[in-house]
Every structure is written in C-alpha cells, then in structure tokens.
Amino acid sequence: MLSLIGQRLVQLVPTLVLVSVLVFLLQQLLPGDPAAVLAGEDADSEAIAEIRRQYRLDQPIPVQYLHWIAGVLTGDLGESIRLKAPVLDLILQKLPVTLQLASMAMVIALTIGVATGIVSALRRNSAWDVAANAVALWGISTPIFWLGIMMIYVFAVTLGWLPASGYVGLAEDWRQNLATTIMPAFVLGNAVAGVIMRHTRSAMLHALQSDYVRTARAKGLPERAVVLGHALRHALTPLITLGALEFGTLLSGAVLTEQIFSIPGFGKLVVDAVFNRDYAVVQGVTLVTATVYILLNLLADIGYVLADPRLRG
Length: 313
Prior knowledge:
Strand content: under 5%
Radius of gyration: 24 Å
Low-confidence stretches: none
Helix content: over 70%
Shape: globular
C-alpha cells in the first residue's frame, strides 16, 4: 500500500508542473488589461504603467511564471488586484463552502444513484427498471439553471419552505446552513445521480452473472448477503473511479449553481475574478482545483486496493 502511494505521488509531480504551466499560460488569453481595469477609466498612462510595474505585468511571461511558481512553492499565490487580499486567504475562506456543497451533492447523488442502480439491476426489464432508467435520464438531461430556478420558484416563492438564496455558515447556525444548501446541493447532485445510476446498474448486472455470486447462492446465503456482500463489493471498483472523478466535476460545476443561489463559494470567486481580470485569483483557484482533482484520482487508486484484495501485493 505504501509503495503504491509513493509511486503515485512521484507521478503527480510532473503532472502538477504541467498543470501550473497551462494555468499560467491560459490566463494570458483573458481579454483586457488588468492594470487598466484596476486604475480605472480616468487613469493616465503613467498610473497604468506604475500598476503594471508593481504587479510585474511589464515583465516577460517566463519571468512572470518563475516568480509566480516560486511563490506557489512557498504558499504565496499572490494578491488579488481587486480585493487587495492574499489569494490563499480568499481560497481558504471560500473553498470550505464549495466543499460542503459538493459533499452534500455527492451524498445525494450516491444515495439516489446507487439505490436505483441496484434496484434496476435486480428487477431487470421490469417496471422498476423502467422507472429507475427514467430517473437517470431525468438527471442527465435536466439543465442545472432550469432546475435551480424551478426549485426556487416552488420551494422558496410558492411554498416558502426554504430561502431562495444566500448562505449561512455551518458554525453560525447548522439548521439555517442546511436550509440554504439543500436546494443547491440537490440541483448539483441531480445530474451526477443519473450517471452513477447507469454505471451502478451496468456493474451490478455484470457482477450478478459472475461465478462467485452463483456459488454464494448455491451455498444458501441470503439474497441480501449475496447482493450487498458479494455483487455490490465487486461493482464498487468502477464506482470508486467514477465517484472520484464526479466529485472533482462537482467542485468545478458548482460555478453555475453558486451563481443561481448566490452562494459565496469557490465558483463565484473565480467568476468574479474572470470578469474583473483578477489574474492572481484565477491562477490560484484553477491551480487548487486541478490539484484537488489529481489528489482525488490518487484516493481512487487507494480505494481500488481497499475494495479489491486481489490488487494488494
């Protein structure tokens, strides 16, 4: 296990270097001049030049990159031009909000997707199977923005059960926190639930036809033990990969959901940074997101070993 983790960590180094280069170069494609935006419409050329010098925007791109990556290695992601605050502090402030939202969405997606996938596989070609596939199709094909608006209209405007927007921290009031995050979490997890359902169904159908499941049934084991203890465990391997990748997708896909529900999270931070040409924030957020995505793949590799003893050695 430790050797596997060590090998994966070594492989992550060149990947992270490549990601950092791409993150830095792609932000150069953003339109507009951040120095001119910061200086304001009435600023003269000397003021703009001074701002450009202050933030090293007048230096060649390779020099800018080396200075930026040197700061990253020491925990300095730069300073927000617009907010006048360290980027790392902004990320540490906003990331927990999006992590909570993505975690809740993943729990909802796994609950719906795995349960309906198992039922669909066990009741193949039945009304239950048709209903489960309809749920999956609904989740995959429903646009996030439309579902979010409809849920606000029904549960906030019409019924008045939940707040239409905003966010209350978990430490402030956990009940109000749940009230402000349950709708966006469902909207975010809805599409993922459909994907998980389809993969669970496929994996379970394959597992239920395997020799060890037939042997377990021949031994007289209860059907519950056969399904949950044998078939589902075998089906977990592809689901671990899917879960890790989809959680990374939830982190990046929270941008639209956070905009709809006015949640001050990671996604809203990067959208505001793009509109304001705040390069340092865009770079920092993108780099952290890519790093989390890569680490999720590492956790998926570890999950393989834990779920399948045949991979241990």
